[in-house]
């Protein structure tokens, strides 16, 4: 009996010693289906987190043997992924849109006016009526009588005494009533390089495209810091609910970048942000002198350039005229010489060039200018944003100069109903060619461009692998030869997205040493049928080891 007691005590002592030698983790997640999104597409069962970083990843037994913790969470097989990363979005723009009249999905001009009246009733003290999301491609043709655009006639009838400015879904056109045009001093003689005031009988119709929008935007009252803070926090809440742990701001001025950094420092904003600096001489002068920098939650090392407009508003710059409007080939928003000057400046700096290119002419121009300064394979990670319509002979330039295509899969499924009308049956084959672009450097970056498209990153995942919209249309997918595999789609919204923003050493995959950003979903997006992907719900979102969202 005494010997048995001695052996039990010895065993207990050995167990205590073994536990004491294991380092402590803040918590351990076990019995999960963990998609690490590393280069080998490794799956694991468990991981341990300490001080906001992954410290062990592997089987449940291996992780439990390597680390001890008072908090062990059994996920009972639930799927876990690296935090979803949107490398091209408009985070502040989302917050601003949440404060405006929501016109997304309006099926007619009358529907737009009805929504605006409801908005005015809810905001009786508003000095302006501001809205976003209209898309004349979804309306009856009779609603868009002038060059495929609406006029402000219905707005003037409904709102004669308050200025109204409505941004198109793609952010590249504004519809303004006469009150707003007068405040902005827009006339039939207003001319702006890289933009257009649409006229009828020599008078403004209310539609301003691309650079011309700035004339109206300058007279719209701007939100103060308190309002912007609220907008950013509202945007963060939506993003966290949808599993986003890092977002981007594709074009911010210095004051807004400083505000994001301030909110990070005082803990009022927790989501990570990759801020692209808006092009402009004050920003160029300041940031080229300061140089790139990176904090735990913010990276500032790129400039956002615009080569052209959008396909939906016929502002995308094409090499041949639009099939459905042969009188125009679109617009360059900056002269080639100015684009060359700026890209040359960035080439001498440590900054990344991220240029918006929709049309095949814009893509051709910027690929050539990038190649002029990059000359060969490199690690500058310069990006073409959207890369929407690319001539087949230009596609290899992405590989030749290590240029990253930063695309938005839901653009393909949103535009597929009318893209061929704009481009014709031959040219459309070079549009939304995600798989062709992926093969050039064996990587691609997937974003959403929200609020142009919906925020949910899983909508983009579905669009990329199925080439279908929310109604699972069309059967077999739109140009299915350019669908990508689920493994590549996951990488494109995690590890490759982080790589495209110089953050792959910190996040983008579940690996020891990286920040503990991850999401838990209610179903496995790597195995469920395509038609179930968009119904997937986020159960939890974690950033830096902290749970910031949990479904009720």
UniProtKB/TrEMBL annotation:
Alphabetized CDD domains for the sequence: YtcJ_like (cd01300)
Cleavable signal peptide: 1-20
Family matches, as InterPro entries: Amidohydro_3, Metal-dep_hydrolase_composite, Metal_Hydrolase, YtcJ-like
Keyword Signal: yes
Domain of life: Bacteria
Keyword terms of this UniProt record: Signal
GO molecular function, one term: hydrolase activity, acting on carbon-nitrogen (but not peptide) bonds
Domain named Amidohydrolase: residues: 72-549
Any single Pfam family the record assigns to this protein: Amidohydro_3
Protein's name according to its UniProt entry: Amidohydrolase
Annotated source species: Fibrella aquatilis
């Amino acid at each position: 009996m005494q010997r048995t007691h001695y052996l039990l005590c010895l065993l207990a002592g050995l167990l205590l010693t073994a536990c004491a030698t294991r380092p402590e983790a803040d918590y351990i997640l076990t019995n999960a289906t963990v998609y690490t999104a590393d280069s080998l597409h490794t799956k694991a069962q468990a991981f341990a987190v300490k001080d906001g970083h992954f410290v062990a990843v592997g089987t449940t037994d291996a992780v439990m043997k390597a680390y001890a913790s008072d908090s062990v969470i059994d996920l009972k097989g639930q799927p876990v992924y690296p935090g979803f990363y949107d490398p091209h979005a408009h985070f502040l723009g989302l917050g601003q849109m949440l404060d405006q009249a929501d016109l997304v999905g309006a099926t007619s001009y009358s529907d737009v006016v009805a929504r605006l009246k409801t908005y005015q009733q809810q905001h009786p003290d508003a000095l302006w009526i501001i809205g976003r999301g209209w898309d004349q491609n979804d309306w009856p043709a009779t609603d868009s009588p002038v060059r495929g655009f609406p006029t402000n006639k219905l707005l003037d009838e409904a709102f004669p005494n308050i200025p109204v400015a409505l941004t198109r879904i793609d952010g590249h056109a504004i519809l303004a009533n006469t009150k707003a045009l007068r405040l902005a001093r827009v006339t039939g003689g207003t001319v702006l390089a890289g933009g257009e005031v649409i006229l009828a009988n020599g008078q403004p119709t209310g539609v301003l495209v691309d650079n011309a929008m700035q004339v109206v935007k300058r007279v719209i009252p701007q939100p103060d810091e308190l309002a912007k803070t609220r907008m950013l926090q509202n945007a963060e809440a939506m993003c966290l609910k949808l599993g986003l742990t890092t977002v981007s701001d594709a074009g911010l001025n210095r004051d807004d970048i400083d505000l994001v950094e301030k909110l990070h420092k005082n803990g009022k904003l927790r989501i990570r942000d990759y801020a692209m600096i808006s092009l402009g001489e004050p920003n160029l002068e300041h940031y080229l002198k300061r140089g790139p920098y990176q904090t735990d939650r913010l990276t500032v090392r790129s400039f956002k350039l615009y080569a052209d407009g959008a396909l939906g508003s016929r502002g995308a710059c094409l090499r041949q005229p639009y099939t459905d409007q042969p009188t125009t080939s679109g617009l360059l928003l900056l002269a080639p010489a100015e684009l060359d000057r700026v890209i040359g400046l960035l080439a001498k700096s440590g900054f990344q060039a991220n240029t918006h290119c929709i049309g095949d002419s814009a893509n051709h121009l910027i690929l050539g200018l990038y190649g002029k300064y990059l000359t060969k394979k490199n690690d500058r990670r310069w990006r073409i944003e959207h890369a929407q319509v690319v001539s087949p002979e230009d596609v290899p330039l992405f590989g030749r100069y290590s240029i990253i295509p930063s695309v938005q899969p839901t653009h393909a499924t949103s535009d597929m109903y009318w893209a061929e009308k704009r481009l014709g049956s031959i040219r459309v084959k070079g549009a939304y060619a995600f798989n062709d672009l992926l093969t050039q450097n064996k990587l691609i970056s997937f974003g959403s461009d929200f609020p142009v498209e919906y925020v949910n990153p899983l909508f983009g995942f579905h669009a990329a692998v199925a080439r279908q919209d929310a109604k699972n249309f069309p059967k077999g997918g739109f140009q299915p030869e350019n669908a990508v595999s689920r493994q590549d789609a996951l990488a494109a919204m995690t590890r490759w997205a982080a790589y495209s923003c110089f953050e792959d050493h910190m996040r983008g995959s579940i690996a020891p040493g990286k920040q503990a950003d991850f999401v838990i979903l209610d179903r496995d997006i790597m195995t469920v049928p395509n038609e179930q992907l968009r119904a997937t719900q986020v159960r939890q979102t974690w950033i830096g080891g902290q749970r910031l969202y949990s479904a009720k």
